[in-house]
């Protein structure tokens, strides 16, 4: 199995999940080690994985690695909305050209491909109702989600036009260990652990469907084992919370006063709410979440960041400096 983006947050958790629960796979990782990639996220499994430091846009390298694999699981992407608003170019390159490069190699060599995507391709929903389904029309808002939508379209077209054996999944917001400190939950946890204050965009009313990374990765394995070729599966916990509510729980779990945070200017074009209807993956493939208690999941995640300062501390100052630049 070739895992692209295996040194990132979800990819590294996926590699560990695979080795533990699906030992029949020999796992290789292809990762460019951008600012978001971290080899130490693979430290617990280092001896069991072949690591290739390289770019998914490098057609020669991709061709060789795809030729030597049976299954390709494609996580590699530029993943942060705020960065995409500031400089969309790497998003177009990695997310669109990178996916194209992989698809061409998969087409040449006739391999099984799974494409990891996001609920953000469907745009956003009002606060008071509605859900995305696999047939919702694409309506991306940010440069990030527009490039993910483009990559999904390429995968669908390569299935239909060339008969490539691909599946797709569009997951809601993930949380868990090894998530970069630029993202909402780890940013706030590590701000507090460093003695600083959390930063809430706007009024904090935006709603996300927080899904544990291990539930996401278990769903991907179900799709690999039993999913129908050409199909898209939505993944999400069903646990929708406003950002203000999540922040309130983080503050409480860390023993902070409820008002110990700063309101900062809102993200331009900020999507209001995401919510996935997961009937298809539940009924067709029998997927169930194991992490059903967000408060307990957040407490465990806080413990992980508390115990693994060595992992995030080297990233923190540069991340907050980048946020200051983005706001300038
Ligand atoms: P991440 O930013 O933590 O990791 C991305 C990884 O991809 C990094 O290791 C990086 O070095 C690598 N990468 C980037 N460009 C590359 C390139 N050109 N060549 C090779 N490697 C490259 O991202 P993540 O949060 O783990 O997200 C992984 C995937 O899941 C992405 O496709 C993202 O769109 C999708 N997704 C994420 C979430 C979420 O909540 N984080 C939710 C749904 C879907
Ligand atoms: O400091 C912050 N304060 C804040 O209020 C940050 C970083 C974020 N936010 C808000 C913006 C969002 O409403 O929190 C929410 C979550 O923000 P992010 O962690 O940046 O995630 P989001 O924009 O929802 O996108 C995530 O989920 C879908 C991932 O980053 C994407 O890769 C994935 O596709």
TrEMBL record:
InterPro entries: dTDP_Gluc_deHydtase (IPR005888), NAD(P)-bd_dom (IPR016040), NAD(P)-bd_dom_sf (IPR036291). Its EC number is 4.2.1.46. SUPFAM superfamilies: NAD(P)-binding Rossmann-fold domains. Residues 2-291 form the NAD(P)-binding domain. It catalyses: dTDP-alpha-D-glucose = dTDP-4-dehydro-6-deoxy-alpha-D-glucose + H2O. Its cofactor is NAD(+). Keywords: Lyase, NAD. Pfam families: GDP_Man_Dehyd. One of its GO terms (molecular function) is dTDP-glucose 4,6-dehydratase activity. Gene3D superfamilies: NAD(P)-binding Rossmann-like Domain, UDP-galactose 4-epimerase, domain 1. The keyword Lyase applies. The keyword Lyase applies. One of its GO terms (biological process) is nucleotide-sugar metabolic process. Belongs to the NAD(P)-dependent epimerase/dehydratase family. dTDP-glucose dehydratase subfamily. PANTHER family: DTDP-D-GLUCOSE 4,6-DEHYDRATASE-RELATED. This is dTDP-glucose 4,6-dehydratase.
